[in-house]
Automatic annotation (TrEMBL):
Annotated keywords: NAD, Oxidoreductase
PROSITE patterns: MANNITOL_DHGENASE (PS00974)
Superkingdom assignment: Bacteria
Native species: Dactylosporangium sucinum
GO biological process: mannitol metabolic process
Stretches assigned to the Mannitol dehydrogenase C-terminal domain: 249-396
Family: Belongs to the mannitol dehydrogenase family.
Pfam families assigned: Mannitol_dh, Mannitol_dh_C
EC numbers, comma separated: 1.1.1.17
Stretches assigned to the Mannitol dehydrogenase N-terminal domain: 28-238
Gene3D superfamilies named among the record's database cross-references: N-(1-d-carboxylethyl)-l-norvaline Dehydrogenase, domain 2, NAD(P)-binding Rossmann-like Domain
Known catalytic reactions: D-mannitol 1-phosphate + NAD(+) = beta-D-fructose 6-phosphate + NADH + H(+)
Protein name, as recorded: Mannitol-1-phosphate 5-dehydrogenase
InterPro entries in the cross-refs: 6-PGluconate_DH-like_C_sf, 6PGD_dom2, Mannitol_DH, Mannitol_DH/Oxidoreductase, Mannitol_DH_C, Mannitol_DH_CS, Mannitol_DH_N, NAD(P)-bd_dom_sf
Length: 441
């Protein structure tokens, strides 16, 4: 089968052809982290913004470590398709937003030069939670390139699932270099985009009629809330449906706690019970009711939702999205890097409830599930992988609440919280997840 390339575009069904193609626009954005999410989210918003309002906002995408996505993209003239998985129906669209591709590990100087290029006016990042450290190679490369801009303005926008992602990135960068010309808009990003598999590529080939080894598949829902603080202009993302705001914090907090917190809960409880995917975890008897109580009793009291929404209705929409059987989102994918994810997804909820004098029953259950998960055995005794940058420290720490830099300092000495976690740990040990949930009143 022929490959997806510029030359193949005229042969494609007009409904799947991209509204812009690489090279139509000069590069204005540099993106660090050429993963699945960027391709199905920011690239799609940017392409739609360029199609609606023009502008030189082509994206130079940087693969920080592996070339496994970059090479197929280079072979395909930077074209890739986004499949939308809506229950039984799958549709495809080719995206033409990319204007270049670079490999940071192989040629860091080329990446630093491009970051320093004044034609780049927006830099976005999806480099996973664990990269937000002063000593991470991608942060060093970013500050090196920014320092070489000589004050030429640029906005640097984190699109990772972190609380206060803009402020966090600002603190990391400005600890090393002056803030002249730089802005750090915060963002809330949302679209479930599981890792691509051979069946993603097979579905893409089937829908496009050409082979696409850089295809991604995602749910229909997509949302991007962006603080409108761009030092050197931006694409007309609002024309693509993005919400531009002064303050993304209420959106971000609700999403991290009521979506990502519940996602992680399903991942740990589900993986222990042998559920391979999030939708299968949610379908376990008693799981949906448990997640509803987690949202209503523990999470909702800690949130001030954005105007026009309630946490309960948001939570119901999230559970509906998680139930999409076509996504095949692996519990083990969501479960990875727990020490990097739990602080913003769960520990803030627990800390806020403890400060209000309440003991978050379901939050404690999720913590007990994570603690059991990282010990490496599912309820049926089968092995579970521990994919976490702090894996060695986890293995060497008998009381996980004492894991420095992960848990708030008060947790280890909080007798009521410890007793609640120990209660769940005993139930999970004696009965397993499935029986524990089924027995809940
Ligand atoms: N996939 C989703 O559903 C989704 C939704 C919302 C937000 N996000 C955010 O996007 C991030 C990436 O998700 P994805 O689906 O693209 O994952 P992915 O595994 O497809 O891609 C991750 C990217 O980050 C890079 N990376 C990984 N570890 C790194 C490190 N230590 N330093 C520098 N770069 C590193 C990888 O090289 C790759 O380019 C998530 O961690 C999350 O913060 C993802
Ligand atoms: O991408 P991660 O690894 O940070 O988290 C896994 C999922 O919880 C996450 O990707 C969600 O699917 C996403 O945040 C939905 O917008």
């Amino acid at each position: 089968m022929a490959r997806l390339t510029r030359a193949a575009l005229p042969r494609l069904d007009p409904a799947v052809r991209p509204p812009v193609t690489p090279g139509d626009a000069s590069a204005g954005i540099l993106h660090l982290g050429l993963g699945a999410f960027h391709r199905a989210h920011q690239a799609v918003f940017t392409e739609a913004a360029m199609a609606a309002a023009g502008g030189d906002w082509g994206i130079v995408a940087v693969a920080p470590r592996s070339r496994s996505v970059l090479d197929p993209l280079l072979e395909q003239d930077l074209l890739f398709s986004v499949l939308t998985l809506d229950g039984a129906e799958t549709t495809a669209r080719v995206c033409g937003a990319l204007a270049g591709g670079l490999h940071a590990a192989g040629d860091p100087d080329a990446v630093a030069r491009r970051i320093a290029d004044p034609g780049i006016r927006v830099i976005t990042l999806t480099v996973t939670e664990k990269a937000y450290r002063p000593d991470s190679p991608v942060m060093r490369l970013l500050t090196r390139g920014l320092a070489a801009r000589g004050g030429a303005p640029v906005a640097v926008a984190s699109c990772d699932n972190l609380s206060g992602n803009g402020a966090r990135l600002r603190a990391l960068v400005t600890a090393e270099i002056p803030a002249d010309g730089l802005s750090f808009p915060g963002t809330m990003v949302d679209r479930i985009v599981p890792a691509s598999t051979e069946s993603t590529y097979a579905a893409a080939a089937n829908l496009l009629g050409v082979e696409d080894r850089a295809a991604v598949a995602a749910e229909p829902f997509t949302q991007w809330v962006i603080e409108d603080d761009f030092a050197a202009g931006r694409p007309a993302w609002e024309r693509a449906g993005a919400i531009l705001t002064d303050d993304a914090a209420p959106y971000e907090r609700m999403k991290l706690r009521a979506l990502n917190g519940v996602h992680s809960a399903l991942a740990y409880l589900g993986a222990l019970a042998g559920a391979p995917t999030i939708d299968r975890a949610l379908a376990l008897p008693g799981m949906r009711e448990t997640m509803e109580r987690f949202i209503e009793q523990d999470i909702a009291p800690t949130l001030q939702p954005p105007p026009g929404t309630t946490v309960e209705s948001y939570g119901q929409s999230v559970l509906h999205r998680f139930a999409n059987p076509a996504l095949g989102h692996r519990t083990l994918q969501v479960a990875m890097d727990g020490t990097q994810k739990l602080p913003q997804r769960l520990l803030g909820t627990i800390a806020d409830r403890r400060a209000a004098g309440a003991c978050p029953r379901y939050g404690a259950l999720v913590l007990a599930a994570w603690m059991r998960f990282v010990r490496g055995s599912a309820d049926d005794g089968s092995p579970l992988p521990l994919d976490d940058p702090l894996a060695d420290r986890i293995r060497a720490t008998p009381n996980l609440l004492e894991l420095d830099g992960v848990f708030p300092p008060g947790f280890a000495g909080d007798d009521e919280l410890r007793a609640q976690i120990a209660h769940w740990a005993r139930d999970l040990e004696r009965h397993g997840v499935a029986a524990t949930l089924k027995a809940l009143p």
